[in-house]
Specification:
By secondary structure, the protein is mostly beta strands. The chain contains 2 helices and 13 strands. This is DUF567 domain protein.
Length: about 200
């Protein structure tokens, strides 16, 4: 099954999309995440490439009202924080840099069928970006689309890993990222979506 996931290829993004240069994918990359594991407040875990190599470390801040999570690179350098903003009509999660400045906002809104999430941020080249998730987070798959070009730059895929690894009732799924796209930022988007899915 791992080989099946590894063989999924996405075309390169129409331009570099992202903030954290060391995490810009040079080829199609597949990250492995566990559903709900992301949302366990206070827990720390690694997000890994399909090869098993850790990509980033996520540290939950125990008993934080906003469920704040700190994300570090493998050397321990603090990259960004993720937390919920409670002042919006629709569920909104933000990614802040180490100085507390907002660098990405993820808003979700429910449609009659499924849900939609929109992420906005400014790439390191200065371009304002809007990414839209097409398909529900709960579906077997969902695409993350660059609104400006219509290009599919990432894909959340559950069916590729269906039954491969169920650990304590947590389903494992794949996040496939196009060349030229920031893997750390796409992982942050998935954490926001997972948090939204597990809101009580």
């Amino acid at each position: 099954m791992t080989n099946q996931v590894s063989s999924v290829q996405l075309p390169p993004a129409p331009r570099e999309i992202g903030i954290f240069e060391p995490f810009i994918a040079k080829q199609t990359e597949t990250l492995i995440l566990k559903e709900k594991m992301l949302s366990l407040t206070g827990d720390s875990f690694d997000i890994k490439l399909i090869s098993g190599q850790p990509l980033v470390r996520v540290d939950g801040k125990f008993r934080s009202l906003s469920g704040r999570k700190a994300v570090h690179d493998l050397s321990g350098q603090h990259l960004f924080d993720i937390h919920k903003e409670h002042i919006h009509l629709h569920s909104t999660y933000v990614v802040d840099d180490t100085k507390g400045n907002k660098i990405m906002e993820v808003k979700s809104s429910f449609k009659i069928i499924g849900s939609k999430a929109t992420a906005t941020f400014t790439s390191r080249n200065g371009k304002s970006e809007t990414l839209v998730m097409e398909g529900s987070w709960l579906d077997t798959s969902a695409d993350i689309v660059d609104e400006a070009s219509g290009a599919h730059i990432a894909r959340i895929d559950r069916k590729l890993l269906k039954g491969r690894e169920i650990f304590g009732g947590q389903q494992t799924y794949a996040l496939i990222v196009s060349p030229g796209v920031d893997m750390a930022l796409m992982a942050a988007l998935c954490i926001c979506l997972d948090e939204k899915n597990n809101e009580h």
